[in-house]
Specification:
By secondary structure, the chain is of the alpha/beta class. It has ten helices and nine strands. Strands 1-2-3-5-4-6-7-8-9 form a nine-stranded mixed sheet, with helices on both faces.
Length: 255
């Protein structure tokens, strides 16, 4: 059991999958009348989500799943694509014994979480897409890096400080591969097949995703909705409480 600087107990767990050992961080406890939450992190990094995870842990039990090859999870057998990352989360879910969860993805984690929701609708009560990627307007390496640079100017230095050890651990080659496979995955093609309520959270200063596309994703979902929150792409770091209330509201709605 670890302790987050905010004072929350963080339980670290490991589960074997065919894609390697998957580590997860768990905060909070199960509550009657509200589903548990499973969070998938963004490209190559997970630590930045811990404060936001602890916010979710104030009203339910919340799990941060670290994808194979990144953060504290084990080495995968080979470089993975988005569908394979989703399969690792599916195997983790199957092994966890969790029933009826709210799936949450941030940034590129939205792409993974959406595939999981389609594959495991009997386990998923709702899907949350926070700062979704990849916006078609930026769907090339050059354009997404330019968008990242514009957004980076709006993020605090503390975010880079949090990211650096995990990026170094992953290595430039693995990060580049992950970027390439996420650019090749079209979230807007998956969302119409999600059979549960979908909530899109968009930071009002986000420069990696446009508000128009984020709203479009909500409209593409059979049961979709959109919420504007304060901040840039990584609003979960600068304002970790910003997503807690909208996610809790959705969780209680679908409980």
């Amino acid at each position: 059991m670890a302790v987050d600087p905010r004072g929350a107990d963080v339980d670290v767990q490991h589960r074997a999958t065919s894609w390697g050992v998957v580590r997860s961080r768990v905060v909070g406890r199960p509550r009657d009348g509200v589903p548990e939450v499973v969070v998938v992190h963004g490209l190559a990094v997970a630590d930045y989500l811990q404060p936001a995870l602890c916010e979710l842990g104030t009203w339910t039990r919340a799990h941060l799943v670290e994808l194979p090859g990144f953060s504290g999870s084990g080495e995968p057998p080979h470089p993975m694509d988005v569908g394979q990352f989703a399969d690792a989360v599916v195997q983790w879910l199957d092994a966890s014994g969790l029933d009826r969860v709210v799936l949450v993805g941030h940034s590129s984690g939205t792409q993974v979480a959406a595939h999981v929701a389609v594959r495991r609708p009997h386990v998923t009560r709702a899907l949350v897409l926070a700062s979704p990627t990849m916006d078609p307007r930026f769907r090339s390496t050059r354009r997404i890096l330019l968008a990242w640079r514009r957004n980076h100017a709006l993020e605090p230095p503390s975010l880079d400080e949090r990211h650096t050890p995990e990026r170094q651990r992953a290595g430039l080659r693995r990060v580049r591969h992950a970027l390439r496979v996420h650019l090749a995955d079209a979230l807007e093609d998956v969302v119409p097949s999600v059979p549960v309520p979908v909530l899109v959270l968009y930071g009002d200063q986000d420069r990696i995703c446009t508000e128009a596309w984020a709203r479009e994703l909500g409209e593409l979902a059979p049961d979709g909705r959109f919420r504007l929150v304060p901040g840039a792409h990584s609003f979960v770091w600068t304002a970790p409480s910003a997503w807690s209330a909208p996610i809790e509201e959705l969780a209680r709605e679908v409980a």
